[in-house]
Amino acid sequence: MLKLDFHPSGRHFLQIPGPSPVPDRILRAMSLPTIDHRGPEFGALGLELLAKVKVIFKTTQPVIIYPASGTGAWEAALINTMSTGDRVLMFETGHFATLWEKMALRLGLEPEFLGLPGYEGWRAGVQANMIEDRLRKDTGHTIKAVCVVHNETSTGVTSNIPAVRRAIDAAGHPALLLVDTISGLACADYQHDAWGVDVTISGSQKGLMLPPGISFNALSDNAIAASKTSNLPKSFWAWDEILEANKNGYWPYTPNTNLLYGLNEALDMLLEEGLEQVIARHQRWAVGVRTAVEAWGLEVQCQEPDVYSPVLTGVVMPEGVDADAVRRLIYERFDLSLGMGLGKSKGKMFRIGHLGDCNDLTLIAALGGCEAGLKLSGVNLKGSGVLAALEYFSQNRPHHVN
Ligand SMILES: *Cc1c(COP(=O)(O)O)cnc(C)c1O
Q1: What residues bear N6-(pyridoxal phosphate)lysine in this entry (predicted)?
Q2: Which of 16, 20, 66, 71 to mutate to test the pocket of ligand 1 (most atoms within 8 A of CB)?
Q3: Is the pTM of this model over 0.90?
């Protein structure tokens, strides 16, 4: 057991960008007895869930639900649509894009990893013009898919997906568009149908406010057509049997019953509030947190204001300060968890999650822990980020979207 300076009382501040805090209402829903997954009650729940989840993805097409973490749904998206040796165009936005590229390689695909030079790509979004240029050169259409991360959770950058769709169309290229919005869904605006996405991948433990353990593939007709000829080995992940069983609200195997109760509750919460409202709430928190970072005189990891993430903010440490040491101190002194720098950004920055079940004051508390921890670590702050954010939240009431 890690020893804290004090006996922790009250609630732990879980401000990492996923898993996000699970609301009591969802925890209570999940505590109901597990039922027969082949019984009539379950089929009704399954049908209700499969219909409601489409609203969140903004799609009228099928959404597959897997009892797996997001990584499983990444794999499912690739192996259901691609064949051995297929070329896939991916874009390096950060650690998660990098992991997905490694996975493609391990699955026997031929990923081509575009990106800005060095560390630049980890502070910017997907460059749609680079994708368009590459696709125009692929006159033989050997590239079968373009794979991008919508909200890069390692950096706090939310890429422009419609621009990627336009790039593919402008090049007149038939490649499928596969998008990871594991951390973007139900925080940032996301539109599977309107943006012309072929497979959207998402997960439970970020914007959906659930514990880890379920993940999603939202499909298109082109994706389903590709799955009929794709030759990569698949059984558990295969869409065909799942789609067949889903027609009656069931799964070919035992689904994650209690997590599905939680999902049902989460969908109700999001739909009662209204998706537009949910998105506006996250945007406002993100501005508040960036206001604090600016008041400290520190840099935000994302250098392109158009694509600041509404889900999380990466805070860059001044030269010579180890972000992991600062995070550890904050955890031990204030019982607050922050996201670590991953991959190329390890030790250089930490990440503040502002997603899901937060409110202005939980964020003020999180910023308070950061501010105190930065000072205790000897970081010279220009001013108080806590006061700046409090001022921002006080002066800017939540915007009600009708
Ligand atoms: C969390 C996350 C993943 C990985 O999901 P797991 O549930 O940890 O398997 C992949 N991509 C992004 C963008 C994520 O935020």
Answers
A1: 206
A2: 71
A3: yes
